[in-house]
Amino acid sequence: xxxxxxxxxxxxxxxxxxxxxxxxxxxxxxxxxxSPKVAVAQVWKSFKTLAGxxxxxxxxxxxxxxxxxxxxxxxxxxxxxxxxLRMINGLIRPDRGSIQVSGAPPKPGPHTSLVFQSFRLIxxxxxxxxxxxxxxxxxxxxxxxxxxxxxxxxLVGLQRFADSYPxxxxxxxxxxxALARALAxxxxxxxxxxxxxxLDAQSRELLQIELMRIWAQRKGxxxxxxxxxxxxxxxxDQVVLMSPRPGRIVETIDIDLPRPRWTYDARSRPDYxxxxxxLSARLREMVVSDPESDFYAGGEQE
Length: 302
Prior knowledge:
This protein is 36% helix and 20% strand. The chain is of the alpha/beta class.
């Protein structure tokens, strides 16, 4: 009952704000004339193991992401989703192909924030100082840093814990603090690498709602890595399905579920169920037919 009351409170608080965002698909007639925010063209990337053997992580990956789009990257473990995020952030470079972010080669900076699965909070700093960490590097005065940190802590519902330390927070609260830290630099692109995977089911569901609410308010581009079919569909405007290693994009599906999606049971809709069934079947087929998979079925699959 407490969980339902919390969700209803979020719904009542934010429905007017998000209602202006329109329906779920961002494929408006004007979007075709807009230059892509992220353009990945025929990208290949390989690494070497400790034994010096090459491992092909990505092969011939092309992806276009328009402004104000929430895109989920869905695929089996080890298919290169994280590698793709790191290249878009400019942390590593492709072996072949090109990546453009806002029309230029990517490089780390405040315009792009990366949220990890692990919280990566500094244990000896307060929650406020953790959120303000990127602003400290940027050289903002202390007063301005704290004012902006408090604003984003309020956005994720953690303002009253600003003077606490990470060790005093629950897992869900730590991840909300990590999200506030990523948002504090006001990035144009938010890269999220399985940020909710380590949470319990209840915390994960609540943070999905928080993430949808925050994105409805501030927009921008989100690239969200997940292994959960349900999470990918619920959050995104577009689901990009990747194959087992070497990762390739095998399918892209537009999600036209109406927004805001926390105001109704999206999972009960026939269109949601159809997309879920399709993606689940394709994922299973790819995994059991991959000879390098622990679940390889050989010639036994139907």
